[in-house]
Amino acid sequence: MAEQSNDEKIRLLKERLEGCERVVALTGAGISAESGVPTFRGQDGLWRHYRATDLATPEAFAENSRLVWEFYNWRREVLAPLHPNPGHLALAAMESRFPHFTLITQNIDGLHQTAGSRKVIELHGNIWWVRCTGCGELTEDRRAPLPELPTCEACSALLRPHVVWFGEMLDPKILDQAYRALDTCQVMIVVGTSGVVQPAASMGATARRRGAFVAEINLEPTPYTDIYELSILGKSGEVLPLL
Ligand code: BV8
Ligand code: ZN
Model's pTM, two decimal places? Predict the structure, then answer.
């Protein structure tokens, strides 16, 4: 079949969403790009001469927690003045449009919540929360930056960003919530993710296998594009509001 136009694909997706009860959206760094947040694999994915993937690891933190905190404080300072974009707002509006709408995000910027999304499954944690490496105490702290090497009020051990690093397990309770939504959804929209980082990357394929209609909205094709029903190449901040 000749390649359908984006308008055609958007119309198709809208038709699929009409009367739908159970919808899942999975987002990645691409949905925050139009808010000014650097993506991982874009040009600005570099931080000084490090790659994010070299710093977002428990090994890097054990070896040089000052450098890893410098990286997260830099991201806090970049993120603090930024706002949700029309893509975040469109997903927040979709939450009240469907009886069961679940938003699963890989992002740690908290912009979905700022946009008004109430039910957000954060697979990889949230940069605005810190966790004690000693007693595990979890606190929200929105300072950008945090003071040098922050320590726990309760036990004075070193605090770490409450995010999932590469090589770390995701919270099983959070994963279970996500897979339960994938099991039963009728339509899934995968937005702004390069489909590289597991287990998030294969969630669209999981939903597809369970019978869901899966559509991708991204600037470029991804390793999973060919198995989805629809792939809309465009900016999430422009395409999502059209839905
Ligand atoms: C785990 C928090 C079990 C930290 C993040 C070898 C082979 C395969 C897998 C592995 C392997 N070795 C290790 C693994 C597992 C590893 C993994 O997948 N590695 C990858 C790199 C190969 N996964 C893990 O370690 C996970 N844990 O598996 O536990 C285990 C345990 C031990 C050993 C093995 C397994 C933990 C992964 C979580 C890592 N933490 N974030 C922080 O943020 O600082 S992941 C981080 O990177 C983000 O959260 C995000 O998830 C990911 C970046 O991906 P994207 O969101 O997709 O962003 P990206 O920039 O890549 O793409 C953006 C896309 O948007 C692009 O396609 C672009 O075209 C598009 N776009 C841009 N602008 C727009 C747009 N689209 C639309 N509109 C626009 N305007
Ligand atoms: Zn503590």
Answer: 0.96
